[in-house]
């Protein structure tokens, strides 16, 4: 009797759009805010701007079926409160982080990823108006961190879109991606 035929248990590996040595630049706009900006403390009307972000990432090392990417993130967001009677409070935040993410190639055009960020948040508060005339503006610097998951889809070899959900500067970011 002949020996049984060998069966193959290997699975096909998908080559995704982000690999070791590749670089990506993301330009995003964020919705929501991790920081409350004093919301609800004073009444009046408020407005919080969307967060604008720019990030760069480079594929660093193959890690299992995916790729470890390392990069930097910079973002800006502001808010203002009109308290009436010409009294206003303005907030601004600038965040700079180093980030690491693990990318999993889902299809040749789409990769899913998740990661961590560590960095610095530089915030400022300014007061204006007759009620706050004795208060000075202030600024502060503090360490910050982030946790995020996302995905990038490339419509062409070098142009795509991304979306991220998480806890860094905003809860949701969407934008454009360029492969460099």
From TrEMBL:
Which InterPro entries does the UniProt entry name for this protein?
OMP/PagP_B-barrel
**This protein is called what?**
Outer membrane protein beta-barrel domain-containing protein
Organism in which the protein naturally occurs = Hymenobacter saemangeumensis
